[in-house]
UniProtKB/TrEMBL annotation:
<comment type="similarity">
    <text>Belongs to the peptidase M24B family.</text>
</comment>
<dbReference type="InterPro" id="IPR036005">
    <property type="entry name" value="Creatinase/aminopeptidase-like"/>
</dbReference>
<keyword id="KW-0482">Metalloprotease</keyword>
<dbReference type="InterPro" id="IPR052433">
    <property type="entry name" value="X-Pro_dipept-like"/>
</dbReference>
<dbReference type="GO" id="GO:0046872">
    <property type="term" value="F:metal ion binding"/>
</dbReference>
<keyword id="KW-0479">Metal-binding</keyword>
<protein>
    <submittedName>
        <fullName>PEPD dipeptidase</fullName>
    </submittedName>
</protein>
<dbReference type="GO" id="GO:0006508">
    <property type="term" value="P:proteolysis"/>
</dbReference>
<keyword id="KW-0645">Protease</keyword>
<keyword id="KW-0378">Hydrolase</keyword>
<dbReference type="InterPro" id="IPR000994">
    <property type="entry name" value="Pept_M24"/>
</dbReference>
<dbReference type="GO" id="GO:0008237">
    <property type="term" value="F:metallopeptidase activity"/>
</dbReference>
<feature type="domain" description="Peptidase M24">
    <location>
        <begin position="2"/>
        <end position="251"/>
    </location>
</feature>
<keyword id="KW-0464">Manganese</keyword>
<dbReference type="InterPro" id="IPR001131">
    <property type="entry name" value="Peptidase_M24B_aminopep-P_CS"/>
</dbReference>
<dbReference type="Pfam" id="PF00557">
    <property type="entry name" value="Peptidase_M24"/>
</dbReference>
Amino acid sequence: MRSMRPGIPEYKAEAWFLNYVYAEGGCRHVSYTCICGSGHNSSILHYGHAGAPNNKVIQDGDMCLFDMGGNYCGYAADITCSFPANGKFTEDQKLIYNAVLKARDAVIAAAKPGVAWTDMHLLANKVMLTSLKKGGLLVGDVEDMIKAGLNEVFQPHGLGHLLGLDVHDVGGYLPGHPERSEDAGVRKLRTARTLLAGMVLTVEPGCYFVDCLLDAALADPIQSKFLMPEQLQRFRGFGGVRIEDDVLITETGVENMTDVPRT
């Protein structure tokens, strides 16, 4: 974050990270291909692969979404930071960032043994949609938005996943545990299990402006009644914001193992 500025390519940020986690943390390897999306690229969930190799030049006014994690002694980290390339949030960037941060905070406060991960996903969605409503992008009842599947329009991925020797660790769907839901939003979850002490997961709410999803929602007679098209228009090309922490479920709640700036 301190080194970032407009005019540099995304891959340079990736190179800085690769150097840092090895030189300072002793991590020879990373846990997955680094995602260094800026501007529109920050709305591409797994941007950065061989077909889109972090090669855009970062522009003034871009939001950066950097999803990267070192691998230490075989164990994976998976952390995402979102911030403005020029170091100063616009009002629109602040609105979306704070919506996602409030969703993250709500999950951190509520997660504990005995709580269903699906409920945590829906909690994050409700908090985020409430913020978007207060910001003038949505209208109507938030519970009705969830029923209509609007949560999946703005967050087309699950809240998080198990983390361990693999970045998307095993154990998400097991015999005798909840099956994958068919409901919008929660059907994207990599696990629907009830939380247990000792579990390590990511908490990664996000808010994205994906043209094809927005267009489909605007054309949908049910979803469109919640949308404010004129206000949403200025977010075309915005990209997205994701905040991702790695947490341990304790006997009483959550230990957040992620030490990065969140503002």
